[in-house]
Amino acid sequence: MNIDKFKHQHLDILRSIDLLRQLTHAGVERNAAExxxxxxxxxxxIKLHLAVEDQALxxxxxxxxxxxxxxxxxxxxxxxxxxxxxxxxxxRRWNTAESLRTDEKGFRAEANVVLRKVYERMQREDxxxxxxxxxxxxxxx
Length: 141
Hints:
Hemerythrin, Hemerythrin-like
């Protein structure tokens, strides 16, 4: 399975997180509308990414014949549940300029926790998971 699209989506999400960080440092109140817009846009990418993982990547790993990779895929899928739920709640809460302006401190605190979890998860996939999938593909190519 070619995972280039997954890796590209990770780059898009990481760029979005970085941009949110920059906008937040420059001032939540001043940049509230753009922050909210970026959260909505990033949510679309994340939802698409998770759906394709669930519908294509993980099932392909289960059919791969590689028990270790199948097990790893199940673990990654299971671990993602709480992270995805936390991100979804975050995105629903902070997707308007008004909500950001009303509770800047709450936004900053939640963004630090939730976006760090998303960031760390993608780093782990890029470092540990995707290379294993690519190794498997190279062996069977």
